[in-house]
Design a protein that fits this description.
- By secondary structure, this protein is mainly β.
- Helix content is 11%, strand content 43%.
- It has a seven-stranded mixed beta barrel with strand order 1-4-3-2-6-8-9.
- Strand 2 and strand 3 form a beta hairpin.
- The chain is elongated and about 75 Å long.
- It starts with a helix and ends with a strand.
Length: 322
């Protein structure tokens, strides 16, 4: 009899240990799991500004997080800062809801928000008129002119203390690249270059966000008084791809008519202006490269297609000295 009771006791003890182990596992899975964010850009960009695949360190990102199962807003306008390696940090620490699933929306740009809720009314963003490296500070210049948006749906938590979700941003604006080359046999005019500008573009982007839209479906229109944008003035050794140094500008998507002044090169002695040969529509997420050869009699301009995503530049053209 005593032997039988001892065996039953041992069986009960084993069962208790098994239940305790299961309970611990459940607590691990159901405990608070922190949501951490990392940023990336969907295509290579910004060779000159060394921002090929990331936002610039120090730039701020507005983040909204919803429960993916109920659409309940969990975090509104959590302002995070881009750090080393793409990490977005600062702001309010974020945690997954009991469902373990979230939708994330994020925006980087020069915007004014009416309140902290996800914005559904029209927004504006204005590009900087000085986008040279010398004006590259947080929120200004080239890096502050870019407008990017990310949407990440149904991000699921892991059983670790934190889950990192990567936000892939999409460019809402357009990019212009100007390659400057000194013409042979005409002396070295470009050693005395004083400015390089993109002309005739309206500087303000108008857009409306919508949680139902993919990032690349956000429509952007241009407004404002057209004003010159100053670029860097780096000169390339030749037109060969390996020799090209890009002078870059972010512009608002818009259509510019043929005959409109578009690129201006100024030296200490002369001013050269290139007018667009064709009507040109600059589209969101696309970049347009212009290879400008400076000769004694004017500019020779060639263009080709390169990826942000693919964009079509102007036809070959020629501009005389002003």
């Amino acid at each position: 009899m005593k032997t039988t009771m001892k065996k039953k006791y041992l069986l009960f003890a084993a069962a208790a240990l098994t239940l305790a182990a299961c309970s611990n596992d459940e607590n691990l899975n159901d405990g608070p799991v922190e949501l951490r964010l990392s940023s990336g850009i969907e295509v290579q960009t910004r060779a000159t500004h060394n921002l090929d695949t990331q936002l610039k360190d120090g730039e701020q990102v507005h983040v909204w997080v919803d429960d993916a199962t109920t659409s309940t807003a969990l975090y509104n306008n959590n302002l995070l800062t881009k750090g080393n390696g793409g990490a977005l940090s600062g702001g309010t620490p974020m945690f997954f809801p009991p469902s373990g699933r979230v939708d994330i929306y994020a925006l980087h740009g020069d915007v004014t928000l009416a309140d902290n809720a996800y914005p559904t009314s029209a927004l504006t963003h204005t590009v900087d008129q000085n986008q040279s490296k010398g004006n590259a500070t947080v929120g200004k210049g080239y890096q502050g002119s870019d407008l990017v948006y990310a949407k990440a749906e149904d991000i699921q938590r892991t059983t670790t203390p934190a889950t990192t979700a990567t936000l892939t941003f999409h460019h809402l604006l357009s990019k212009v690249e100007v390659v400057l080359i000194q013409g042979t046999g005409d002396g070295n005019f470009l050693q005395n270059i004083t400015s390089l500008q993109v002309l005739s573009t309206q500087p303000t982007a108008n857009f409306t966000l919508d949680k139902a839209y993919a990032a690349n479906a956000i429509v952007v229109t241009a407004s404002g008084t057209a004003a010159p944008i100053s670029l860097d003035t780096d000169v390339s050794a030749s037109s060969a791809e390996a020799d090209q140094v890009l002078n870059e500008a972010i512009i608002v998507p818009q259509t510019i008519n043929s005959g409109t002044p578009f690129i201006r090169v100024q030296t200490s002695e002369s001013t050269f202006t290139y007018n667009l040969v064709n009507n040109t529509t600059f589209e969101s997420g696309k970049k347009y490269k212009y290879i400008v050869t400076v000769r004694e009699t004017g500019l020779e301009v060639d263009s080709n297609i390169n990826d942000w995503t693919e964009g079509v530049g102007d036809d070959d053209g020629y501009a005389e000295e002003d």
